[in-house]
Amino acid sequence: MRNTVALLLISNVIATLGVAAVTLYVFRRRDRERFLLWFGLFSILYATVLIVRNSAFRLGFGQPHAIGLAVEHFISLATVVPGLLLFEDFYGRGWRASVRWLIAIYCGVAAIAATGIAHRYSMRAMLPPGTVLVILVPVVLAVGYLTGYKPPPLPHRRILSAGMIAFFCAFSTDRLLHRQVGNWHTGVEPYGFLVLIICLWYVTAQRIVADDRRLVSLTDEMRLATRIQRAILPAEIPHLHNADIAVRYAPMADVAGDLYNFVTLQPSCMGVLVADVTGHGVPAALVASMVKVAVSTQCGKDRGPADVIAGLNTVLCREARQQYVTAEYLVLDTANGVGRHAAGAHPLPLLLRRSTQSLEKVGESGLLLGVRPDEPYGESEFHFEDGDRLLLYTDGLVEAENASGESFGDTALRAFIHKKQDCGAEQFVKLLLEEVLAWSHNGQEDDITIVAIDLKGPAHN
User: Fold this and answer.
1) Alpha-carbon distance 291 to 313, whole Å?
2) Would the CA dihedral through 171, 174, 176, 180 be positive or negative?
3) Total Cβ atoms within 10 A of residue 436
4) Which value, to the nearest 10 degrees, does the dihedral of the CA atoms of residues 282, 283, 286, 291 take?
5) CB count, 10 Å around CB of 95?
6) Cα dist from 300 to 174, 304, 388, whole Å
7) What would the pLDDT profile of 373-430 be if each residue is shown by its tens digit?
8) pLDDT tens-digit profile of 267-319?
9) What distance in Å separates the CA atoms of residue 352 and residue 372, rounded to the nearest whole number?
10) Which whole number is the average pLDDT over 184-199?
């Protein structure tokens, strides 16, 4: 009787630890921590069968009927599956996915056994699933060792191995002594499982602590990367005579591949760069930082837009191979109402001419930057008048799609520009960003940069 009560207490401890593991997995929701789910299910199912087959439990609730016994057998057969998945999570797939084959073989044998139990067939001619497992697990480990298979690195591997060996030895002893399908004799196996649970919880706790420390470190690094990227963007919008400039910069993540910059050439002359690195996140942000440095060396009073874009292309081809960027650079001369523009695969600016209410694209676009080092880029000249508005942007603005799959650039952008032409530049970019974010059915899927320039012609000089 004392042993029965001890086993009942052990069962409740195992069940509690299993529920805790599943709860922890649900609240953390990290793919790399699926071992918590397998560990929890394994513990809960094992403890459930152990409890309902405990003589003290049955003394209080009575012996189960045929259906109840069948359900117990099914649960005991299913218990091994999350256990094998937990084994795979720590050991890996094995040589040529041998662990996956082990799981498949066990599931097949367990399915046959479950069918026999459901239909009350005699299953004495076949090996029970537990016995199959006792045979195949050592085979998988031996094959892995002989073929040189290297399991994933795991801290505290010896502690985990000790727990697994203790359980497997106890499991094997009970299964080999009692081979009938569905027959469970509570011998030494629960004690071996308790040893395994203690070892697993120790290794799991160490793994969670290490993951959280790594996450904190990555979070701190990401915050630093965000501050660094913000530092490469203009701290403030410089003043340009006879123009009002407003910007909205909305990265999709903490760091982004979009970049904008202003180069003051004269009080009434300014260069404006807008670039978009292909990709997202930290890699794109690193290339964007390189572009910013390159811009500082390429832009100058004696270099036109075509030379600047060509220079950026040369730097990328030389210093960042297979990293591609779309970019445009324009120079505005508000004293004479003239602009010059060059681009490499970047969306062309839109110029709203207030006098005629026409909306036109400015310039032409060349090859994507970073493809060919000696690629020539053309340069276009355009004129503007008092009240005209120039809009520069990255493709995150025009490619945003609504629930019907319609892109914002094809469907709504032009109408919005006309509708909000009386808003000041700052109010315009604010409303435009809000509009495109509301338009996006799946939320923001790309970095968005918007630069609006309200121009005043030479008549104001």
Assistant:
1) 10
2) negative
3) 25
4) -130
5) 16
6) 83, 8, 26
7) 989 999 999 999 999 999 999 999 999 999 999 999 999 999 999 999 999 999 999 9
8) 999 999 999 988 777 777 777 877 877 777 776 656 889 999 999 999 889 88
9) 34
10) 73
* Phi/psi-derived region of residue 409, left when phi > 0, alpha when psi is between -120 and 50, beta in every other case: alpha
Contacts 24+ apart (CB under 8 A), 119-126: 123/181, 124/180, 124/181, 126/181
Please tell me whether the overall predicted TM-score, pTM, comes out greater than 0.70 for this model.
no
Burial class (CB in 10 A: 0-12, 13-18, 19+), 55: middle
Question: Model confidence over 125-167: pLDDT tens digits?
Answer: 445 566 666 778 888 888 888 988 888 877 777 887 788 788 7
Q: Which of 357, 442, 351 is nearest to 399 (CA)?
A: 442
Q: What is the pLDDT of residue 125?
A: 44
DSSP secondary-structure letter at 188? Answer: S
Query: What one-character DSSP code corresponds to residue 369?
Result: B
Residue 203 CB contacts under 8 Å (≥ 6 apart), including other chains: 154, 155, 156, 159, 160
423 CA to centre of own chain: 38
Query: How far, rounded to the nearest angstrom, does the alpha carbon of residue 227 sit from its chain's CA centroid?
Result: 21
